[in-house]
């Protein structure tokens, strides 16, 4: 009955010709492109130095707006290490205009999401909401950045929260290994410190230090207001002029500021924390990598993709693409490995993170990983470069799914390089990378270069530094 009723309804809407009459031939018109008001990232700088950047999508129903600040744990001193992360926790605990309850209720009533995070070089506060609620979200962001009360009672409550968070981080082996990798590679320098800071600092940070960090770093010349989604650029500029014009124009030239802008030196060294209660050896090895704006940035990512990743627990473990993963799986050398290329404003770390429970064969694992690095300097095939490029392009494009991801990409690129490369521009750069480029990169950055090593767990059989360093110039 339903099918018959549907057929009758459809028939009522059709004009059926009488017998003997012919219909004019159907003609399809030419398709015309929809003119979008903005297909690229727009940027405006206000009089006080604040940058406003946005990517407008006219058909998006939601928007992400946020403030990216060129200040993280790198802008701290040894005595104040942990301050930036502490401030992130206090941002939502009340302002001069809103109590913590009012702030939470306002966000809840909008159905919006408000969040923040701290890295070694950046602090980010952002909100995602319906387009109509963007002005209110920008007002909230401006309020928590400029008018946080930093009450003593809130500071004491968050102190305990951060100490518990620190304990949780210390249980995550990957986090521990990479924190130690930074500490040994960038010894006695700001980039080598952790984001949360040592427990003693967390226990002793005062309201004065928190206020000074805001005064010294939350300035217009080090901030970018970013919008992505259904918020037009002109509207975002108006909101910035309404809410952020009272920001100080520039940062004071304090000792911490000057240190944060000083070129970081990479130091070949190692750190080992033996704990035989941990059933695996967890080892990270890295050379000095590239900065965000280095000409080799994308070549480093392609080289990283050639080395690849591996996880024995996955069903496709024997077929994960890279030569190293095939060798590791065939000989059962590792539980997993992950190649990485981490970039900062003036340096980076390019390397591999190895996890294995084959404790008597950990040296074999390290040897074959470094032999693969040496091979990149000598013999790279076109096929594996094309595979790596395809994986890299897919990874970059998939990571830009959603307004928050786009806002993150805009904020990170503009705060570090001053401009944003579009996905299309990035794709063209990657397409132009050849096997010769990869081998040239490996010759300059990998072959016979100093390394930093961080090893945690059952690492008794990890060979000494000099032996591992000698593998960096091996003829295949």
UniProtKB/TrEMBL annotation:
One of its GO terms (molecular function) is metalloendopeptidase activity. Residues 205-392 form the Peptidase M16 C-terminal domain. InterPro entries: Metalloenz_LuxS/M16, MPP/UQCRC_Complex, Pept_M16_N, Pept_M16_Zn_BS, Peptidase_M16_C. PROSITE patterns: INSULINASE (PS00143). Its cofactor is Zn(2+). Its EC number is 3.4.24.64. The keyword Protease applies. Residues 52-199 form the Peptidase M16 N-terminal domain. Belongs to the peptidase M16 family. This is mitochondrial processing peptidase. It comes from Sporothrix curviconia. The lineage of its organism: Eukaryota, Fungi, Dikarya, Ascomycota, Pezizomycotina. The gene is MAS1.
